[in-house]
Write a structure and sequence with these properties.
disordered C terminus, DNA/pantothenate-metab_flavo_C, binds ligand 9Z3, Rossmann fold, phosphopantothenate--cysteine ligase activity, Phosphopantothenate--cysteine ligase 2, coenzyme a biosynthesis, 8-stranded mixed beta sheet, ligase, single chain, alpha/beta, 8 helices
Protein backbone atom coordinates (compact mmCIF):
# COMPACT_ATOMS: atom_id res chain seq x y z
CA UNK A 1 0.00 0.00 0.00
CA UNK A 2 1.37 3.45 -0.87
CA UNK A 3 2.21 5.70 2.07
CA UNK A 4 0.76 9.22 2.41
CA UNK A 5 4.33 10.52 1.97
CA UNK A 6 4.70 8.78 -1.41
CA UNK A 7 1.34 10.11 -2.50
CA UNK A 8 2.04 13.70 -1.50
CA UNK A 9 5.48 13.64 -3.09
CA UNK A 10 3.90 12.34 -6.32
CA UNK A 11 1.57 15.35 -6.38
CA UNK A 12 4.21 17.85 -5.29
CA UNK A 13 6.52 16.80 -8.11
CA UNK A 14 3.78 16.59 -10.79
CA UNK A 15 3.58 19.32 -13.42
CA UNK A 16 0.52 21.37 -12.34
CA UNK A 17 -2.70 21.09 -14.36
CA UNK A 18 -2.89 23.92 -16.89
CA UNK A 19 -6.62 24.55 -16.51
CA UNK A 20 -7.22 23.64 -12.89
CA UNK A 21 -9.42 26.63 -12.03
CA UNK A 22 -11.63 26.05 -15.05
CA UNK A 23 -12.03 22.36 -14.13
CA UNK A 24 -12.92 23.18 -10.52
CA UNK A 25 -15.51 25.71 -11.64
CA UNK A 26 -17.09 23.30 -14.12
CA UNK A 27 -17.16 20.57 -11.48
CA UNK A 28 -18.77 22.75 -8.83
CA UNK A 29 -21.42 24.06 -11.22
CA UNK A 30 -22.21 20.54 -12.44
CA UNK A 31 -22.42 19.08 -8.94
CA UNK A 32 -24.54 21.95 -7.58
CA UNK A 33 -26.93 21.79 -10.53
CA UNK A 34 -27.42 18.04 -10.29
CA UNK A 35 -27.50 17.75 -6.55
CA UNK A 36 -30.07 20.51 -6.19
CA UNK A 37 -32.22 19.18 -9.06
CA UNK A 38 -35.58 18.00 -7.65
CA UNK A 39 -34.07 16.89 -4.37
CA UNK A 40 -30.84 15.62 -5.88
CA UNK A 41 -29.46 13.21 -8.43
CA UNK A 42 -26.87 10.60 -7.75
CA UNK A 43 -23.55 11.47 -9.33
CA UNK A 44 -21.02 8.93 -10.59
CA UNK A 45 -17.47 9.61 -11.71
CA UNK A 46 -16.67 7.14 -14.50
CA UNK A 47 -12.98 6.94 -15.38
CA UNK A 48 -12.20 5.64 -18.84
CA UNK A 49 -9.30 4.88 -21.20
CA UNK A 50 -5.60 4.52 -20.42
CA UNK A 51 -3.13 6.99 -18.95
CA UNK A 52 0.07 7.83 -20.82
CA UNK A 53 3.53 7.97 -19.27
CA UNK A 54 5.67 10.69 -20.86
CA UNK A 55 9.36 9.92 -21.36
CA UNK A 56 10.41 13.54 -21.91
CA UNK A 57 9.16 16.75 -20.25
CA UNK A 58 8.66 18.30 -23.69
CA UNK A 59 7.00 15.09 -24.61
CA UNK A 60 7.71 13.44 -27.95
CA UNK A 61 7.51 9.83 -26.78
CA UNK A 62 5.33 8.16 -24.20
CA UNK A 63 4.28 4.73 -22.92
CA UNK A 64 0.64 3.90 -23.49
CA UNK A 65 -1.74 0.97 -22.99
CA UNK A 66 -4.45 -0.88 -24.88
CA UNK A 67 -7.59 0.63 -23.31
CA UNK A 68 -10.14 1.79 -25.91
CA UNK A 69 -12.50 3.50 -23.44
CA UNK A 70 -15.36 1.33 -24.62
CA UNK A 71 -16.24 0.09 -21.15
CA UNK A 72 -16.31 3.62 -19.71
CA UNK A 73 -18.42 5.03 -22.56
CA UNK A 74 -20.94 2.15 -22.50
CA UNK A 75 -21.16 2.27 -18.71
CA UNK A 76 -21.76 6.03 -18.82
CA UNK A 77 -24.71 5.56 -21.17
CA UNK A 78 -26.17 2.97 -18.80
CA UNK A 79 -25.68 5.15 -15.71
CA UNK A 80 -27.45 7.99 -17.52
CA UNK A 81 -30.30 5.64 -18.39
CA UNK A 82 -30.54 4.77 -14.70
CA UNK A 83 -30.98 8.46 -13.82
CA UNK A 84 -27.44 9.37 -12.75
CA UNK A 85 -25.42 12.44 -13.61
CA UNK A 86 -21.99 11.38 -14.87
CA UNK A 87 -18.57 12.99 -14.60
CA UNK A 88 -16.80 11.24 -17.46
CA UNK A 89 -13.05 11.45 -16.79
CA UNK A 90 -11.66 10.08 -20.03
CA UNK A 91 -8.49 9.74 -22.01
CA UNK A 92 -8.46 12.25 -24.84
CA UNK A 93 -9.19 10.52 -28.17
CA UNK A 94 -10.78 7.36 -26.74
CA UNK A 95 -14.38 6.20 -27.08
CA UNK A 96 -17.12 8.68 -26.07
CA UNK A 97 -20.65 8.05 -24.79
CA UNK A 98 -23.20 7.86 -27.62
CA UNK A 99 -20.45 7.59 -30.24
CA UNK A 100 -19.84 3.85 -30.03
CA UNK A 101 -21.73 3.15 -33.24
CA UNK A 102 -20.19 5.91 -35.31
CA UNK A 103 -17.39 4.96 -37.68
CA UNK A 104 -14.18 6.55 -36.40
CA UNK A 105 -12.14 5.37 -39.28
CA UNK A 106 -12.66 7.57 -41.20
CA UNK A 107 -15.30 9.76 -39.60
CA UNK A 108 -15.73 11.89 -42.74
CA UNK A 109 -17.28 8.90 -44.46
CA UNK A 110 -20.48 9.73 -42.57
CA UNK A 111 -21.11 12.76 -44.74
CA UNK A 112 -21.71 13.61 -48.37
CA UNK A 113 -22.36 16.55 -50.71
CA UNK A 114 -25.41 15.32 -52.62
CA UNK A 115 -25.51 18.23 -55.07
CA UNK A 116 -23.42 21.24 -55.87
CA UNK A 117 -25.01 23.39 -53.12
CA UNK A 118 -23.32 24.13 -49.81
CA UNK A 119 -25.41 21.57 -47.95
CA UNK A 120 -23.60 18.68 -46.33
CA UNK A 121 -25.77 15.72 -45.46
CA UNK A 122 -25.35 12.48 -43.53
CA UNK A 123 -25.12 9.39 -45.75
CA UNK A 124 -28.18 7.17 -45.49
CA UNK A 125 -25.98 4.27 -44.27
CA UNK A 126 -24.95 6.27 -41.17
CA UNK A 127 -28.07 8.36 -40.67
CA UNK A 128 -29.57 6.37 -37.79
CA UNK A 129 -26.29 6.20 -35.81
CA UNK A 130 -25.52 9.90 -36.28
CA UNK A 131 -29.09 10.93 -35.45
CA UNK A 132 -29.11 8.90 -32.22
CA UNK A 133 -25.67 10.19 -31.20
CA UNK A 134 -26.61 13.84 -31.76
CA UNK A 135 -30.02 13.51 -30.10
CA UNK A 136 -28.71 11.68 -27.02
CA UNK A 137 -25.79 14.05 -26.67
CA UNK A 138 -28.10 17.09 -26.97
CA UNK A 139 -30.61 15.74 -24.47
CA UNK A 140 -28.25 14.41 -21.83
CA UNK A 141 -25.26 16.71 -21.98
CA UNK A 142 -26.81 19.97 -23.15
CA UNK A 143 -30.50 20.11 -22.08
CA UNK A 144 -30.40 18.06 -18.90
CA UNK A 145 -26.77 18.90 -18.01
CA UNK A 146 -26.21 15.34 -16.81
CA UNK A 147 -22.90 14.66 -18.52
CA UNK A 148 -19.65 16.46 -17.80
CA UNK A 149 -16.70 15.32 -19.91
CA UNK A 150 -13.20 15.96 -18.57
CA UNK A 151 -10.28 14.80 -20.74
CA UNK A 152 -6.82 13.70 -19.56
CA UNK A 153 -3.78 12.24 -21.27
CA UNK A 154 -0.95 11.66 -18.81
CA UNK A 155 -0.85 9.80 -15.51
CA UNK A 156 -0.06 13.17 -13.90
CA UNK A 157 -3.21 14.79 -15.28
CA UNK A 158 -5.40 11.79 -14.49
CA UNK A 159 -4.47 11.53 -10.82
CA UNK A 160 -4.69 15.27 -10.19
CA UNK A 161 -8.10 15.38 -11.85
CA UNK A 162 -9.34 12.35 -9.93
CA UNK A 163 -8.37 14.11 -6.70
CA UNK A 164 -10.23 17.27 -7.80
CA UNK A 165 -13.36 15.29 -8.63
CA UNK A 166 -13.24 13.35 -5.37
CA UNK A 167 -12.78 16.46 -3.30
CA UNK A 168 -15.62 18.23 -5.11
CA UNK A 169 -17.94 15.25 -4.52
CA UNK A 170 -17.08 14.89 -0.85
CA UNK A 171 -20.15 16.77 0.40
CA UNK A 172 -22.67 14.59 -1.36
CA UNK A 173 -21.31 11.53 0.45
CA UNK A 174 -23.12 8.25 -0.25
CA UNK A 175 -24.99 9.64 -3.27
CA UNK A 176 -21.71 9.79 -5.15
CA UNK A 177 -19.95 6.87 -6.76
CA UNK A 178 -16.54 6.19 -8.25
CA UNK A 179 -16.46 3.66 -11.08
CA UNK A 180 -12.78 3.33 -11.84
CA UNK A 181 -12.61 1.65 -15.25
CA UNK A 182 -9.59 3.59 -16.56
CA UNK A 183 -6.46 1.54 -17.20
CA UNK A 184 -4.06 3.43 -14.97
CA UNK A 185 -0.31 3.06 -15.52
CA UNK A 186 1.47 1.15 -12.78
CA UNK A 187 4.90 2.57 -13.65
CA UNK A 188 6.07 6.04 -14.60
CA UNK A 189 9.08 8.31 -14.97
CA UNK A 190 9.12 10.82 -12.09
CA UNK A 191 9.02 14.36 -13.47
CA UNK A 192 12.25 15.49 -11.82
CA UNK A 193 14.22 12.53 -13.20
CA UNK A 194 12.83 13.00 -16.72
CA UNK A 195 14.95 14.57 -19.42
CA UNK A 196 13.59 17.94 -20.60
CA UNK A 197 14.29 17.55 -24.31
CA UNK A 198 13.74 14.76 -26.81
CA UNK A 199 15.86 11.72 -25.96
CA UNK A 200 18.78 11.47 -28.40
CA UNK A 201 18.37 8.56 -30.75
CA UNK A 202 22.01 8.10 -31.75
CA UNK A 203 23.42 7.04 -28.40
CA UNK A 204 22.69 3.29 -28.45
CA UNK A 205 20.11 1.29 -26.51
CA UNK A 206 17.93 3.24 -24.13
CA UNK A 207 17.66 2.41 -20.46
CA UNK A 208 14.90 4.06 -18.45
CA UNK A 209 14.09 3.37 -14.83
CA UNK A 210 10.39 3.41 -14.10
CA UNK A 211 9.11 4.11 -10.58
CA UNK A 212 5.90 2.64 -9.21
CA UNK A 213 2.86 4.90 -9.42
CA UNK A 214 1.47 5.25 -5.88
CA UNK A 215 -1.93 3.52 -5.58
CA UNK A 216 -4.47 6.27 -4.97
CA UNK A 217 -7.53 4.12 -4.28
CA UNK A 218 -6.82 3.82 -0.58
CA UNK A 219 -6.46 7.59 -0.08
CA UNK A 220 -9.58 8.16 -2.19
CA UNK A 221 -11.42 5.82 0.19
CA UNK A 222 -9.91 7.14 3.41
CA UNK A 223 -9.52 10.90 2.77
CA UNK A 224 -10.74 12.29 -0.53
CA UNK A 225 -14.29 10.92 -0.58
CA UNK A 226 -14.67 8.42 2.26
CA UNK A 227 -18.47 8.16 2.02
CA UNK A 228 -18.66 7.63 -1.73
CA UNK A 229 -19.58 4.21 -3.11
CA UNK A 230 -16.48 2.91 -4.81
CA UNK A 231 -16.05 0.31 -7.57
CA UNK A 232 -12.59 -0.54 -8.86
CA UNK A 233 -11.53 -2.84 -11.70
CA UNK A 234 -8.99 -5.61 -11.92
CA UNK A 235 -7.57 -6.66 -15.24
CA UNK A 236 -5.47 -9.77 -15.85
CA UNK A 237 -4.44 -11.76 -18.89
CA UNK A 238 -4.21 -15.01 -16.91
CA UNK A 239 -7.70 -16.08 -15.86
CA UNK A 240 -6.24 -18.45 -13.23
CA UNK A 241 -5.12 -15.58 -10.99
CA UNK A 242 -7.88 -13.08 -11.75
CA UNK A 243 -10.32 -13.76 -8.93
CA UNK A 244 -7.61 -14.15 -6.33
CA UNK A 245 -6.09 -10.80 -7.34
CA UNK A 246 -9.49 -9.08 -7.34
CA UNK A 247 -10.29 -10.48 -3.89
CA UNK A 248 -6.97 -9.17 -2.57
CA UNK A 249 -7.68 -5.73 -4.06
CA UNK A 250 -11.13 -5.71 -2.45
CA UNK A 251 -9.60 -6.23 1.00
CA UNK A 252 -6.57 -4.04 0.50
CA UNK A 253 -8.33 -0.96 -0.86
CA UNK A 254 -11.61 -1.44 1.04
CA UNK A 255 -13.68 -0.69 -2.05
CA UNK A 256 -17.31 -1.82 -2.20
CA UNK A 257 -16.73 -4.14 -5.16
CA UNK A 258 -14.04 -5.04 -7.66
CA UNK A 259 -15.04 -5.82 -11.23
CA UNK A 260 -12.66 -8.55 -12.41
CA UNK A 261 -12.08 -8.96 -16.13
CA UNK A 262 -9.76 -10.87 -18.39
CA UNK A 263 -8.33 -9.03 -21.39
CA UNK A 264 -9.58 -11.32 -24.17
CA UNK A 265 -13.07 -11.95 -22.76
CA UNK A 266 -13.75 -8.52 -21.24
CA UNK A 267 -16.58 -7.76 -23.64
CA UNK A 268 -18.32 -11.05 -22.91
CA UNK A 269 -18.12 -11.42 -19.16
CA UNK A 270 -16.91 -9.85 -15.92
CA UNK A 271 -17.10 -10.98 -12.29
CA UNK A 272 -18.31 -8.63 -9.57
CA UNK A 273 -16.24 -9.52 -6.51
CA UNK A 274 -17.53 -8.23 -3.17
CA UNK A 275 -17.90 -9.24 0.46
CA UNK A 276 -21.32 -10.71 -0.38
CA UNK A 277 -19.78 -13.17 -2.87
CA UNK A 278 -18.83 -13.27 -6.54
CA UNK A 279 -21.35 -12.72 -9.32
CA UNK A 280 -20.58 -13.59 -12.93
CA UNK A 281 -22.12 -11.02 -15.30
CA UNK A 282 -22.44 -11.81 -19.02
CA UNK A 283 -23.92 -10.08 -21.99
CA UNK A 284 -27.14 -11.66 -23.25
CA UNK A 285 -25.84 -13.92 -26.04
CA UNK A 286 -29.28 -14.29 -27.60
CA UNK A 287 -29.51 -10.51 -28.23
CA UNK A 288 -26.85 -9.37 -30.72
CA UNK A 289 -26.96 -5.74 -29.54
CA UNK A 290 -26.57 -6.68 -25.87
CA UNK A 291 -23.40 -5.59 -24.06
CA UNK A 292 -22.05 -6.71 -20.71
CA UNK A 293 -22.41 -3.17 -19.31
CA UNK A 294 -26.24 -3.36 -19.57
CA UNK A 295 -26.28 -6.09 -16.95
CA UNK A 296 -23.26 -4.88 -14.99
CA UNK A 297 -24.61 -1.37 -14.37
CA UNK A 298 -28.00 -2.78 -13.30
CA UNK A 299 -26.21 -4.71 -10.52
CA UNK A 300 -23.96 -1.80 -9.53
CA UNK A 301 -26.91 0.60 -9.34
CA UNK A 302 -28.87 -1.84 -7.14
CA UNK A 303 -25.86 -2.19 -4.83
CA UNK A 304 -25.49 1.58 -4.68
CA UNK A 305 -29.17 1.91 -3.70
CA UNK A 306 -28.66 -0.54 -0.84
CA UNK A 307 -25.55 1.37 0.22
CA UNK A 308 -27.47 4.67 0.32
CA UNK A 309 -30.24 3.13 2.44
CA UNK A 310 -27.71 1.61 4.83
CA UNK A 311 -25.90 4.96 5.10
CA UNK A 312 -29.18 6.74 5.87
CA UNK A 313 -29.80 4.36 8.75
CA UNK A 314 -26.57 5.64 10.28
CA UNK A 315 -27.44 9.34 9.76
CA UNK A 316 -30.10 11.29 11.72
CA UNK A 317 -33.26 11.54 9.57
CA UNK A 318 -33.12 15.39 9.39
CA UNK A 319 -29.99 15.30 7.20
CA UNK A 320 -29.85 15.55 3.39
CA UNK A 321 -32.63 13.89 1.45
CA UNK A 322 -32.35 12.62 -2.09
C1 LIG B 1 -10.48 -2.36 -16.64
O1 LIG B 1 -10.22 -3.44 -16.21
C2 LIG B 1 -11.44 -2.12 -17.79
O2 LIG B 1 -12.48 -3.03 -17.74
C3 LIG B 1 -10.72 -2.23 -19.17
C4 LIG B 1 -11.76 -1.90 -20.26
C5 LIG B 1 -9.57 -1.21 -19.24
C6 LIG B 1 -10.19 -3.63 -19.40
P1 LIG B 1 -11.64 -0.93 -22.69
O3 LIG B 1 -11.25 0.43 -22.21
O4 LIG B 1 -11.22 -1.99 -21.56
O5 LIG B 1 -13.12 -1.07 -22.90
O6 LIG B 1 -10.84 -1.33 -23.91
N1 LIG B 1 -9.91 -1.24 -16.07
C7 LIG B 1 -9.00 -1.22 -14.99
C8 LIG B 1 -7.65 -1.76 -15.36
C9 LIG B 1 -6.62 -1.46 -14.30
O7 LIG B 1 -5.70 -0.77 -14.59
N2 LIG B 1 -6.78 -1.95 -13.09
C10 LIG B 1 -5.75 -1.89 -12.08
C11 LIG B 1 -5.18 -3.28 -11.93
O8 LIG B 1 -5.67 -4.22 -12.58
C12 LIG B 1 -6.35 -1.45 -10.76
S1 LIG B 1 -6.49 0.28 -10.69
O9 LIG B 1 -4.21 -3.44 -11.17
Amino acid sequence: MSSEGEISSFFESSPPLKNMEEIVEKLNQFINWNFSWQGGRRIVCVTSGGTTVPLEQRCVRYIDNFSSGNRGAASTENFIKAGYAVIFLYRRGTCQPYCRYLPDDPFLECFEFPDKTNNIQVRASHLEAVKMAVMDQQRVAVSERRLLKLPFSTIYEYLQMLRLVATALKDIGPYSMFYLAAAVSDFYVPWESMTEHKIESGSGPLEIRLAQVPKMISILRSNWAPKAFCISFKLETDSKILIEKATKALRKYKVHAVVANELSTRKEEVVVVSSSGNVVVRRDCDKPESIVEDNLIRIIVARHSTYIIESQLLIPSTSTTV
